[in-house]
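Customer escalation, tier 2.

The customer says the design service returned an amino acid string that "doesn't look like it belongs to this structure." They asked us to rerun it and document both sides in this ticket. The original structure tokens are below, unchanged.
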């Protein structure tokens, strides 16, 4: 009897312990563990799904980092969007190098903003909810085919080095891969993580030097031609917007989101704002990119410019689904910004069911802490008064 050829999922590894997936369940969806496990255990695949599936992201990270699983199955939902989870996972070096299968919501089709964003992650494969056995089988084999060869095969070995804490081997292997694939987004992100780890115990001068090195590495993952000459982010984005288009860009979120987070963490707010706005426009206004824009504008004392983005998140349909949704508190923030900017009419109009909202804010704004006699006005209150007078005279 002729032996059947091995599938790509079987070629993944000879070690069965390396053919285990972990299922990160959505909090607002019924479990698909039994269905997934049945399909993964199919002899044509030869995999299994870890029985301790969870809704907790930390449990999933621990399973991957300790080597108990080598593939993450992430379930998308309105309460916990997959984009939000992916953004957090990219901050962890091992997770950034781990293949992730996203089960997208049924209504997320190819033309949707959410689907386009999910496809912009180099380590993500997307299937739709309501998948059949055959469609999942095909998707898994396509994913395995990509990760069994080319740069992704080397990236799997990098992840294994990190799990086994072979830091020297990781550094050597990474440099070898970067020589062959200098602008691969996952490799540039891995290099950025390596540089960040090298900051531990370094002098302030060395840390400052590393900041620009990390920035340049991540920019190379977004703009492949960045090595031509040193150039600032605003000049790069301006040249892309011009007719000549000096730089090519694939604008993969694999490097863009970590770079935005990196800019904010190191106080480079204007750079973070520039890149976040550019990506926000490029991907059709995804919610996950509105948050850093709001954060940067508020920290830069440009509260009025943040209002359109706050309104956008406040108007999301998801907000009405569950109070646990990440954008569920946008109205509270929007109310505070309205009052801080002296936009009293907008504050009242935004809360038709709270007739005493203005009284509540005035009391909270002017109330002194217990035991402290503050009869003078604060500088912030003077600025607010000037804004109100300016708006009234206009």
């Amino acid at each position: 009897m002729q032996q059947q050829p091995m599938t790509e999922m079987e070629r993944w590894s000879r070690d069965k312990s390396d053919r285990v997936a972990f299922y990160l369940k959505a909090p607002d969806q019924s479990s698909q563990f039994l269905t997934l496990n049945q399909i993964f255990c199919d002899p044509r695949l030869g995999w299994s799904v870890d029985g301790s599936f969870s809704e907790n992201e930390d449990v999933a990270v621990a399973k991957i980092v300790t080597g108990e699983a080598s593939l993450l199955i992430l379930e998308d939902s309105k309460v916990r969007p997959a984009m939000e989870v992916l953004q957090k996972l990219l901050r962890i070096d091992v997770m950034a190098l781990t293949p992730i299968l996203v089960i997208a919501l049924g209504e997320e089709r190819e033309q949707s903003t959410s689907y386009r964003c999910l496809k912009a992650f180099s380590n993500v494969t997307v299937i739709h909810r309501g998948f059949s056995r055959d469609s999942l089988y095909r998707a898994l084999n396509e994913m395995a085919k990509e990760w069994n060869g080319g740069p992704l095969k080397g990236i799997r070995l990098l992840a294994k080095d990190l799990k086994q804490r072979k830091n020297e081997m990781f550094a050597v292997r990474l440099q070898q891969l970067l020589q062959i694939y200098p602008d691969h987004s996952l490799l540039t992100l891995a290099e950025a993580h390596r540089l960040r780890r090298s900051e531990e115990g370094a002098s302030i001068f060395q840390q400052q030097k590393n900041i620009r090195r990390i920035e340049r590495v991540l920019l190379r993952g977004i703009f492949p031609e960045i090595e031509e000459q040193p150039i600032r982010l605003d000049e790069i984005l301006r040249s892309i917007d011009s007719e000549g288009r000096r730089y090519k860009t694939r604008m993969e979120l694999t490097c863009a989101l970590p770079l935005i987070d990196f800019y904010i963490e190191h106080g480079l707010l204007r750079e973070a704002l520039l890149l976040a706005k550019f990506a926000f426009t490029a991907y059709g206004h995804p919610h996950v990119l509105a948050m850093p824009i709001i954060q940067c504008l508020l920290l830069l004392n440009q509260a009025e410019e943040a209002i359109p983005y706050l309104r956008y998140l406040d108007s999301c349909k998801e907000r009405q689904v569950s109070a646990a949704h990440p954008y569920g508190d946008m109205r509270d923030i929007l109310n505070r910004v309205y009052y801080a900017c002296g936009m009293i009419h907008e504050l009242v109009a935004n809360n038709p069911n709270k007739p005493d909202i203005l009284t509540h804010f005035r009391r909270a704004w002017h109330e002194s802490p217990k035991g402290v006699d503050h009869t003078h006005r604060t500088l912030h209150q003077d600025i607010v008064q000037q804004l109100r007078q300016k708006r009234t005279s206009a």
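Tier 2 assessment: The sequence is consistent with the input. The radius of gyration is 24 Å. Residues 300-394 form one domain. Sent an explanation to the customer and offered a walkthrough call.
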